[in-house]
Amino acid sequence: FGIASDENFVITTTNRKEITEDNFGELVQDGVTLYLLQSVDQTLLSATKERIDFLPHYDTLVKSGMYEYYASEGQNPLPFALAELIDNSLSATSRNTAIRSIQIKLLFDDSQGKPAVAVIDNGRGMTSKQLNNWAVYRLSKFTRQGDFESDHSGYVRPLPVPRSLNSDISYFGVGGKQAVFFVGQSARMISKPADSQDVHELVLSKEDF
């Protein structure tokens, strides 16, 4: 790499976690992308690109929420599925210093495609890694192991406030993607991190599977 013998350097993950003798086995896995830097907080000289391969079983995404939703003790499960999606927006906007904006749109215009439910918020957004991890089955927003970057990094359970929505309303705990496939046939996530110019998009389609 052209590093002089008297020059210092560090090796980090894309989350800027320094690789050391102690955490090498935990952080360095097959396919992981690493940075070779002069310091952990060094500014990157150019944009980076990372290939991510993720192939879940068909049933994992499209059927995993069914049992828990249908086992809702006779209650109408649709509100709980929508609450799961709204919960993501409540959590994403929980630290907004300005007004929190969450919109729920039901789209039925055939000229615009199939009917859809759109949940739009002005939250902090997700990185590409967070967006990828959102698609992984059963990775809770409270679970972070090794180099895992949660789609709810920094999530803090809010204090309960009577008769209000407080970003902790998930009922079944099956996650947003299971709620999506309970309601419909595909999910499209479009997200821009608050501190980045990049816009990331993820599409999960039952038809594609």
Compute the CA-based radius of gyration: 20 Å
Beta-strand level of the residues, as a percent range?
15-25%
Named at the architecture level, the CATH assignment of the largest domain is: 2-Layer Sandwich
**CATH domain class name of the largest domain:** Alpha Beta
Largest sheet: 2 strands, antiparallel
Return the string of H and E elements: EHEHHHEEHHEE
CATH topology of the largest domain: Heat Shock Protein 90
The backbone outline, from C-alpha atoms, is elongated
Structural class: alpha+beta
The side-by-side strand order for the widest beta sheet comes to: 1-2
Q: What is the count of structural domains?
A: 2
Overall number of strands:
6
Rounded average pLDDT: 76
CATH superfamily of the largest domain, by name, is Histidine kinase-like ATPase, C-terminal domain
Number of helices: 6
The separation of the N and C termini measures 42 Å
Low-confidence stretches: 138-153
Secondary structure: helix percent: 10-25%
Please tell me about this protein's structure:
- The radius of gyration is 20 Å and the shape is elongated.
- The chain starts with 9 loop residues before the first strand and ends with a strand.
- About 8% of the residues have low confidence.
- With 209 residues, the protein is an alpha+beta fold.
- Helix 4 packs antiparallel against helix 6.
- Strand 5 and strand 6 form a beta hairpin.
- It has a two-stranded antiparallel ribbon with strand order 1-2.
- It folds into 2 domains: 54 residues, no CATH class; 130 residues, Heat Shock Protein 90.
- The protein contains 6 helices and 6 strands.
- This is SMHD1 protein.
- InterPro entries: HATPase_C_sf, SMCHD1.
- One of its GO terms (biological process) is double-strand break repair.
